[in-house]
Amino acid sequence: MSLLGTLTTSVSALDSFTTGLDTIGNDIANINTNGFKSSSVSFADTFSGLGTQVEATSTNFSQGALNSTGIPTNLGISGNGFFIVKDPTSGNEFATRDGSFTLDPTGYLVNSLGYRVEGFTGGSAGTAPATLGDVKLGTPPTGTTLQSVSFSSTGDLVETYSDGSQATTNQVLLQNYTDPSSLTSQGNNLYSNLTGAGPLTSTLGSTNAPAQGGLGTVQGGTIEQSNVDLTQEFSSMITMQRAFEANARLLTVSDSVLEDVVNMKTH
Fold it and tell me: Distance between CA 174 and CA 238 in Å, rounded?
């Protein structure tokens, strides 16, 4: 390998390991982000065989711990699947594991951006929800008011009224993907490219009910925490930092030797 080749090799390594350190830093920064999934960088040699390059950045979709919040509209998924939320303005849909949902002033179950959670709606006392759409509170029976809401493990939204009666008015549905690594992070704990990731069903339906077909269950009053393993991240950071330092040293030595060669030729 020539001196110029050594310089090129070390520069490619520094670029690659910078990406690795950036990824680790992003994971650590999001350790308290609801539903956040950590990432890891893999490397490969370059086409010429001299140097290294980032081969891929992979997302780890393993389960994060469920933290109890006591807020009934906060939903955590225990197992596989994603909530689907829709932007009411554009109609675009996104997948998310962040179930920090609330009820907006018009009764829709929404995330922090006002995107509406998708599922079956239109239920009432004696009538199961069956219309696919935005999850929204029902109309209380005549002479009553809504007292509380709760969610079952299968995603059923149960409304309790002032006369003690109850009705299942909605059901939150889940979607899963054959290739979740193809999901594209959009920020705000949202993922796009849902079609490219291979949804298990082309549209949401009865087979998307929680606890069916390999999908997880819904835990009301909880939020999934980040799955970042701080110990693993620090271990990876030390390894990456040492590799970066070694290649920085190689770059310095190569530059020094090249300078000596140039000086020899000028004398």
Answer: 38
Phi, psi for 170 (deg, rounded to 5): -150, 165
Structure tokens at 52: 């290294």
Q: Strands, E, within 162-220: which ranges? A: 166-172, 174-175, 184-187, 190-192, 217-220
pLDDT in tens, 156-182: 999 999 999 999 999 999 999 999 999
Domains of the chain: which residue ranges? 3-61+228-265, 66-224
Predicted model pTM: 0.86
Cβ proximity of 85 and 71 under 8 Å: no
Residue with tokens 């509170």: 137
Closest by alpha carbon to 196, among 210, 214, 183, 212? 183
Element spanning 57, H or E: strand 52-59
CB 178 within 8 A of CB 197: yes
Q: Report the range of poorest mean pLDDT among 23-32, 53-62, 241-250.
A: 241-250
